[in-house]
Amino acid sequence: MFPCDFAWGAGTAAYQIEGGWQADGKGPSIWDTFCHEKGRVFGEQNGDVACNSYELWEKDLECIQQLGLTHYRLSLSWARLLPDGTTRHINQKGLQYYNKVIDDLLTCNVSPMVTLYHFDLPQALQDQGGWKSPGIATLFDSYAKFCFQTFGDRVKLWITINEPYVCAKLGHEDGIHAPGLKEPGLAAYLVGHNMLRAHAMAWHSYNSFYRTEQKGAVSLAINSDWLEPSRAGCAEDIAATERSLAFTLGWFAWPVFVTGDYPEIMRSAIDAQSKKFGYSGSSRLPSFSKDEPAILGTADFFALNYYTSRKVEPGGGCGETLCMKSDRDAGEVLDPSWPICGVSWLAVVPHGLRKLLKYIKDTFNNPAVYITENGFSQVGPLQTEDVQRSEFYKDTIFEVAKAIQEDGVNVRGYFAWSLLDNFEWADGFSVRFGLFHVDFADAKLRRTMYLSGQEYVKMILKYKSAQST
Ligand code: NOJ
Fold first, then answer.
1. Burial level of 323, CB count in 10 A (0-12/13-18/19+)?
2. Reduced to 3 states, what is the DSSP secondary structure of residue 10?
3. Beta strand pairing status for 71-75 and 7-11?
4. How far is the CA of 115 from the centre of ligand 1 (A)?
5. CA 51/CA 59 separation, integer angstroms
6. Phi, psi angle pair for 380, to nearest 5°
7. What pLDDT score was predicted for residue 453?
8. Most buried in the list 37, 118, 141, 465, measured by CB within 10 Å?
9. Can you tell me which atom of ligand 1 is nearest the CA of 424?
């Protein structure tokens, strides 16, 4: 039922696990800065040490082996490799670290999937305008080329940018992620635009200079909930659901997979709101230039981060001011019948993943799909026997199997989030997503497999043996 080369993985991100924030010449990133400011993160916590994977990588590798993973998704810290963000200065120790990680994985028969950017911009580049500045795209492209050149002989699966939606909206509209900007209705669109330009440039670089020799694949990881109208058959709710999809999944997937440009309903909604609020500049949603590398076709597979499902109805603006919420005029709510476990935004809806996969197949011309993240969290007292999470993984993977078998979706891999409990951004260490528990009170940061990890081991074994027969 799962193809024989199906990727069974788990993921992490540099800032969430590595620590070593100043070690061996690493430059600061926007998350270092953000966490060191008062009031930004739960309990004033930070990723200075986190799981200390910078020093304890071998322990992580043991976890990966204990799970029997075929793939491991990690991200590179841009500022660890290039402390000021540019290739003018390369940090050899950073290079050595990632070379060792990649080599060790391959020695253990585990294929790396490498994310170039997972929320942690070098602070030096933020100081020059960060993702709001158009020049960031070429700087990202140089960094990407450096990584392809350096690691591409061994890395065959690349993600350029992780969750551009989250970087743009949480970092530049809501201000709850680094760099903590609150410029509603403006900055997020600009940031999303520059992220798409950066991604496309890097994909074209790979395509022109590295693909023939290295034979890898490159995409960007798009997060999306499964969305449904609140009241089935209600025209307003159906329209709101379409708008909501256009402003989330469509914002990034439409330009890359469908037209090379933003969904039409996104632009018309934004422009109509500008008019209503008397905003007189050019469209708040930028336009792609014909003189730059095309955006359309710049993904070799669809990389999906899926966590939850929501019901949608019109509404949810922000009063008299311009903001993304009024632009999309859609409120997304959790259905009260769905169990909520862990964080408040995450209802457990495994069947939503199957529906979303079918939607992706139908809308984006049946692409190869990697589920690059999926998981659910634990908060409050530690439960090592996490029965609910074990059930969640079983149910979800069963839905993926049905998507493949019954709906014919070309799913190529599944990456649980996350290998380890780690620094969950604004929630600090209060939210645990790991298949392994990390004891942050223990000087050795001991890793212990949760029951859900044990179940994942069994599922991988079971499905793998069916794959080979
Ligand atoms: C998506 C992000 O990519 C990851 O960094 C985060 O920990 C998970 N969502 C859970 O919130």
1. buried
2. strand
3. parallel
4. 13
5. 10
6. 80, -155
7. 98
8. 118
9. 7
Show Cβ contacts of residue 314 under 8 Å, excluding neighbours closer than 6 positions: 236, 237, 239, 240, 329, 330, 331
Are 347 and 225 in contact by the 8 Å Cβ rule? The answer is: no
| Weakly modelled stretches of the chain, pLDDT under 70 | 468-469
Ligand 1 centroid, distance to 307 Cα (angstroms): 9
Class of domain 7-467: alpha beta
Q: What distance in Å separates the CA atoms of residue 352 and residue 376, rounded to the nearest whole number? A: 14
Query: Which is the closest atom of ligand 1 to the Cα of 119?
Result: 5
Domain extents in the chain: 7-467
Kindly tell me the sign of the dihedral angle through the C-alpha atoms of 84, 429, 351, 166. negative
**Amino acid (1-letter code) at residue 123:** Q
CA 451 to ligand 1 centroid distance, Å = 21
Q: Whose CA is nearest to atom 2 of ligand 1?
A: 163
122 neighbors 85 (Cβ within 8 angstroms): yes
Name every protein residue with a CB atom under 6 angstroms from any ligand 1 atom: 13, 16, 162-163, 305, 373, 417, 424, 433
Q: If you measure from the C-alpha of residue 98 to the centroid of ligand 1, how many angstroms do you get, rounded to a whole number?
A: 21
Q: Provide the pLDDT for residue 442.
A: 98
pLDDT of 468 reads 58
- Best residue for ligand 1 mutational test, from 373, 418, 438 (most atoms within 8 Å of Cβ): 373
Residue nearest to atom 6 of ligand 1 (CA): 424
Is the bond preceding residue 179 a cis peptide, omega within 30 degrees? yes
* pTM of the predicted structure, to 2 decimals: 0.98
25-128-288 Cα angle (round to 5) = 120
Question: What 3-state class would DSSP assign to 254?
Answer: helix
